[in-house]
Amino acid sequence: MPARYLITGGCGFIGTALIRRILQAEPAAAIRVLDNLLVGTAEDLGRVSAFTRRPAGDCRAATGVVLVEGDLRDFDTALRCADGVDCIVHLAASTGVPISVEDPRTDMESNVIGTFNMLEAARQSSVRKFLFASSGAPIGEAQPPLHEEIPARPVSPYGASKLAGEGYCCAYAKSFGLSTVALRFGNVYGPGCRHKSSVVAKLIRQALLGQPCEIYGDGKQSRDFIYIDDLVNAVLRAIERDVAGELFHIATGREHTVAEVVELVSEILREKGITMSIEYGARRRGDVMRNFADTRKAESILGWIPTMDLRGGISRTVEYFIRQGCGPD
Question: Hey, how many other C-beta atoms are within 10 angstroms of the C-beta on 8?
């Protein structure tokens, strides 16, 4: 039987990249996409695969790629979409620290209630594998490199909501035998990220539009930037491996400041005759200063290592934005 997947948030940056890779490896795979289309679009999904639209109550027997437009905060929708699938990859979320600070209730409802609904739907539907997309935000301020044994002390509502999701994944593995894996993603970037508000995508997009590139704080804050293909490889490894109730950091183990990324993007753009200007703003509430990860657990258990260096990844991302015509007319 072909594999049957449910990918929440599947019209987004990571979701479409994952769907492309699954279909390359398993052309007969049946993939349901549950998405509210607030960020990713049906057109984005159409760039990686033909698909049909179905209501949640009429998607079980469908083959190929099926798009269900719906909200995972509605348990009936989650349950109907989970019925008959082998693996759920839960990518959908209210993402980002600033949004969670501005509207903590929506962040909680999407990331806590939404994740609980998907886990409970997986349990009731006897789903074999459940992958949860988390981040380093649950840890909060800690001396990097971050690893899985550091106590979590989130400083933002987003970090708290992702920590709750990790906790529920562990509980469902221990209490119900659901094979859950939580993956703490680094700052992912790469071709396909045109809707993202993360630093690499935002810098390139603003520069191509001739707008000042906004930096929050002094640029000395650091992050762990991971290329999309490396991240998708990690997700696929986590699906394939027989692990349950585990948590992994999925990043590069390399620390880069925002100022370093700005200089690298500026240099690559200059080579193409494009200049960028910088504006510095106030540091955002809830942001941590340093964040990069120790990925040895993922290497040991999942057999996964990242391969793309930052310069190569940013060069490919710049080329993608230019091909998409994201600059001025």
Answer: 28
The question of whether 158 is a catalytic residue gets the answer yes
Domain hosting 313: range is 199-222+255-292+308-323
Q: Which amino acid makes up residue 181?
A: V
Same domain, 134 and 239: yes
CA distance 243 to 110: 26
In this structure, the answer to whether residues 279 and 152 fall within a common structural domain is no
Extended strands (E) in the chain = 4-8, 30-35, 52-53, 65-69, 87-90, 129-135, 179-185, 187-189, 213-216, 222-223, 225-227, 246-250, 256-257, 278-281
Provide the number of structural domains found in the chain. 2
In a domain, 230, yes or no: yes
Judge if 229 and 105 occupy the same domain.
Answer: yes
The one catalytic residue among 158, 168, 172, 227: 158
Task: Give the contacts of 309 (CB within 8 A, at least 6 positions apart).
Answer: none
Alpha carbon separation from 191 to 314, 317, 321 (Å, rounded): 9, 5, 8
pLDDT tens readout for residues 141-164: 999 999 999 999 999 999 999 999
What is the percentage of the chain residues whose pLDDT exceeds 90?
Answer: 83
Q: Which residue has the higher pLDDT, 95 or 297?
A: 297
**pLDDT for position 170:** 97
Give CA–CA dist 100/154, Å, rounded.
Answer: 12
Asked if residue 66 and residue 163 are part of one domain, the reply reads yes
Identify whether residues 93 and 203 lie together within a single domain. no
What CATH number does residue 282 fall under?
3.90.25.10
> CB-based contacts of 31: which residues, under 8 Å, 6+ apart?
4, 5, 6, 7, 10, 19, 22, 23, 49, 64, 65, 66
pTM: 0.94
For the stretch 98-146, pLDDT in tens is 899 999 999 999 999 999 999 999 999 999 999 999 999 999 999 999 9
